[in-house]
Amino acid sequence: FPVTIGGGYIPGAKVQNGIQRLIAEFMKEYLSSYVDCSLSYYYSSNNSGGHTHYRNISAHKLNRTFFATLQIPYQMLRNRDAVFLGFSGVIPKLLDFMSVKKVIFIYDFGFYTHPDLYDNPGRLKRQVDNSVKHADVIITLTHQIRQELLAQFNFLNTEKVHSIYAGIDHLNETVHKKRLMKHEYFLYVGVVKPVKNITGLL
User: Fold this and answer.
1) Which residues pair with 83 in a beta bridge?
2) How many CB atoms neighbour CB 41 within 10 A?
3) pLDDT in tens, 7-60
């Protein structure tokens, strides 16, 4: 069955952030496991250099104007796509009225807990509120975010919310015979900012 992904990453291009890595790894694993399926990937990035060796990925660059609101739903209807994967956590509004399966990914609730760090937190809240309401499946990357999601939206059916931790197979495997430190420690690799809740981890 045909699957649609909307995002800002060009298949085969250099990965520049965590969401792009998720998209790239999903494409690779999905198409390796389901060789008879196809992916329609829509993006609006101006970056170049992307390419893919998978014959069943159809990548389409769309104009940035009305990219998510009109162009993705129109292309899905035209291509008869069956599933929409929203890696940005947002479902285009028109998909609410289309009989396609909608899957979204939720990473954090920074614009709820720290709205002062975002340009338009109100708009982000409205988008996520609508997407959570209409999603058939919601995926979080940790059990903690799953708990926060269910607390924020207590009407959700818990069976449609799943936690899938991100893998580390993109990292070079390094084996150390000695511990780096004698005492217990943990390693955090990422951006240090309030929305990451590092203080909560500590």
Assistant:
1) 3, 101
2) 22
3) 556 666 777 777 778 887 887 777 777 767 777 778 776 554 455 556 677 777
